[in-house]
């Protein structure tokens, strides 16, 4: 219980604040709880299957295989795969974070991880279809197309700005166990 | 829709894995649970915070606020609103359309859409947790600047 309180300190603080609002301004308070609830429902719709798939990927796919396609020496295959993976995704950007963690664990090149992250943020195909129907095909397609060189450039700048030891720290954080490589 | 596909995919993969190797499947689930529960407190805080933001910066307010603003001032305001908020796409695009219908220009709407998708101030604490401060600052900062460049291009290509 004490541990729970400590871990969820910030969350519980925000909820207490919400309760105060609910007391002072019931209408706004109810809306806050309504929005918070639907945010949680959206998150629960996306994250559990993502985490299950990542857990399976982690235990079944050897590091060597992933590195061949997206590692330091994968060449052009890397960013192309990153863009395809990001574009095939759906859901908010936070869904990409745990995926990137497993990528790091499996030795995916830093540049490719950032390309993936940027692609997820703005190249998602399901979103593109939504955007087309709301804002027009020309608007949506133009934005999608100019985004590709932009994210490659943004990822390159980030990749060059980080010092080798900063990247190493990033990989070290996730280096833990590679279950698939143990057997 | 996506949720359904994701769940079907995850469950089928799980069953397939279970028939192949029981132990490995157990390890996978343990890993999944561990990484989920270790990040859940941060997620919970961010989502609760977004609940408050969505209440006080409601879609209706955004339309009213951005619909009439134009010029660079309008773009700047759109970028601020787009960077802070985290709105699901199925609300965001109809929202962008009503901002457009209210009289905002293509460039203001383009900045709004780009920053909405690429820049996340409320999710920055989560991004920092995974990627570190420097990456978070660079990715969000560069995406913010790029949103204006994208808007300029879209303003030239798309005529209302």
In short:
The complex is a heterodimer of chains A (183) and B (160). With 183 residues, chain A is mainly alpha-helical. Helices cover 82% and strands 0% of the residues of chain A.
Outline of chain B: elongated
Structural class of chain A: mainly alpha
Number of strands of chain B: 0
Q: Give the distance, in angstroms, between the N- and C-terminal Cα atoms of chain B.
A: 32 Å
Largest protein interface? A-B, 74 and 73 residues
Q: Could you tell me how far the N terminus lies from the C terminus of chain A, measured between alpha carbons in angstroms?
A: 38 Å
Q: How many beta strands in the DSSP annotation of chain A? A: 0
Strand count, sense and barrel status of the largest sheet of chain A are: none
How much of the sequence of chain A is in beta strands?
under 5%
Tell me what you see in this structure.
- The complex is a heterodimer of chains A (183) and B (160).
- In chain A, 82% of the residues lie in helices and 0% in strands.
- With 183 residues, chain A is mainly alpha-helical.
- Chain A folds into 2 domains: 1-47, no CATH class; 61-182, no CATH class.
- The model of chain A has no long low-confidence stretch (mean pLDDT 91).
- With 160 residues, chain B is mainly alpha-helical.
- Chain B folds into 2 domains: 1-53; 57-160, no CATH class.
- The longest helix of chain B is centred in the N-terminal third of the chain and has 35 residues, at 22-56.
- Chain B is 85% helix and 0% strand.
- The radius of gyration of chain B is 20 Å and the shape is elongated.
- The chains are: A mainly alpha (183), B mainly alpha (160).
């Amino acid at each position: 219980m004490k541990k729970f309180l400590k871990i969820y300190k910030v969350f519980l603080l925000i909820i207490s604040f919400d309760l105060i609002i609910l007391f002072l301004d019931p209408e706004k308070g109810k809306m806050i709880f309504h929005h918070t609830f639907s945010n949680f429902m959206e998150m629960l719709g996306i994250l559990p299957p993502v985490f299950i798939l990542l857990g399976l990927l982690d235990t079944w796919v050897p590091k060597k295989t992933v590195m061949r396609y997206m590692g330091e020496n994968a060449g052009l295959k890397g960013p192309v795969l990153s863009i395809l993976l990001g574009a095939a995704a759906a859901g908010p950007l936070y869904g990409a974070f745990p995926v990137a963690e497993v990528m790091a664990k499996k030795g995916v090149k830093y540049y490719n991880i950032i390309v993936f992250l940027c692609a997820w943020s703005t190249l998602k195909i399901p979103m593109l279809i939504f955007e087309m129907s709301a804002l027009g095909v020309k608007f949506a397609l133009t934005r999608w197309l100019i985004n590709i060189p932009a994210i490659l450039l943004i990822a390159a700048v980030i990749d060059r700005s980080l010092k080798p030891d900063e990247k190493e720290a990033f990989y070290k954080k996730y280096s833990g166990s590679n279950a698939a490589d143990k057997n | 829709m996506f949720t359904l596909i994701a769940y079907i995919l995850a469950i089928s993969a799980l069953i397939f894995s279970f028939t192949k190797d029981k132990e490995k499947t157990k390890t996978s689930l343990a890993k999944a649970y561990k990484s989920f529960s270790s990040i859940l407190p941060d997620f919970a805080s961010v989502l609760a915070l977004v609940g408050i933001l969505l209440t006080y910066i409601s879609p209706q307010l955004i339309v009213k606020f951005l619909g009439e603003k134009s010029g660079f001032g309008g773009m700047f305001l759109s970028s601020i609103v787009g960077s802070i908020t985290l709105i699901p796409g199925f609300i965001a695009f109809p929202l962008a359309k009503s901002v457009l219908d209210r009289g905002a220009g293509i460039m203001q709407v383009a900045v709004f859409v780009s920053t909405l998708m690429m820049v996340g101030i409320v999710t920055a604490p989560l991004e920092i947790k995974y990627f570190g401060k420097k990456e978070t600052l660079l990715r969000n900062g560069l995406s913010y600047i790029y949103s204006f460049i994208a808007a300029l291009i879209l303003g030239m290509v798309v005529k209302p």
